[in-house]
Task: structure prediction
Amino acid sequence: MRRFWLIFAQTVTVGVAALFVVQTLKPEWLDRLPRGVIVKEISEDRPADSVTSFRTAAVKAVPSVVHIFTRQETRQSRSPFLNDPLFRHFFGDRFGHEETQRRSGLGSGVVVTNDGYILTNNHVIEAADEIEVASNDGRKFKATVVGSDPESDLAVLRIPANSKLPAITFSSSDSVRVGDAVLAIGNPFGVGQTVTSGIVSALGRTHLGINTFENFIQTDAAINPGNSGGALVDGYGRLIGINTAIYSQSGGSMGIGFAIPVSLVHDVLAQIIRTGAVTRGWIGVEVQEITPELAEMRRLPVTEGALIAGIVRGSPADKAGIRPGDILLAVAGKKVRDAQIMLDLIAALEPGRSATFRVRREGQEIEIPATIGKRPRPSRE
Result:
């Protein structure tokens, strides 16, 4: 019995040594062996995109993302040299007439309904005289502006209902998490439909100074000029945001891009399709962030809330008795953590309705009812 085990051990040792020598000196010999003998390979019927690819998500979402081309006519002003009599003596008025110039721009958009409604950024189509939409399969359509919302930088276009472009599927607004894989789809630099991948880097980005109403998804998926208005989709090809802005010192992607989340998109889209505009609540106050330094200077017990720095004369806040110096703590029972939250809470209120505002004044908390007004549309400069 001892001899048997000795022979077995020597055989195994020799076999392992031989396999080591072949693997080291002649690895190509192993390729001649039947597959599955040495290495277990991935089965051919196993979906590759479940391991290394976003192919399924891209195939689903790409047909719903379009290119947007805009044209705008501008007139060049009269030459200032014409005010010089000597210049006019030699050259006459040949430089006096206005010259018409045509400017073009490009961006991206997302088909959101099967009857031709397209969502994009307001800055993509702002001041455009002509708008043309090109689908991923090469078809082109004239588009009209249904409505826009400069304060969220969203706009809705309409192309013929028989265009038969597929509408994108929306993700639920609370399904996005930091670390989720995402795709950015658009027309960067006008080179054509492009898909880039990355992850969600952060949620709820505010105080960036990009829009009045901010609640951005931050992503490291490459977003470049021309991607504006395009789709940010999840790993299933569902829309989670509209690509809007990049942080860049060179004009190209630096790994920090921002998208408007579908939670904001839903409301703006519905209002524009229904009425052509977005209506928000307003009470007419100017607010200031309560920093730790400000709280110490004013001897405030907390840094939460928003300091009322000014009141618009004749506004709902003025009529209700809200005063400069008040600390706004809650709007309609919802806590105000900072000035941005306050702005969002008031904007969500329906104009004409009454709401209660809780403020701290001279060390005491009081509740003040006010009738909500309609937020004025920002004037174009």
User: Anything to note?
Assistant: The helical segments are 2-25, 55-61, 85-91, 122-125, 262-275, 292-297, 316-320, 339-347.
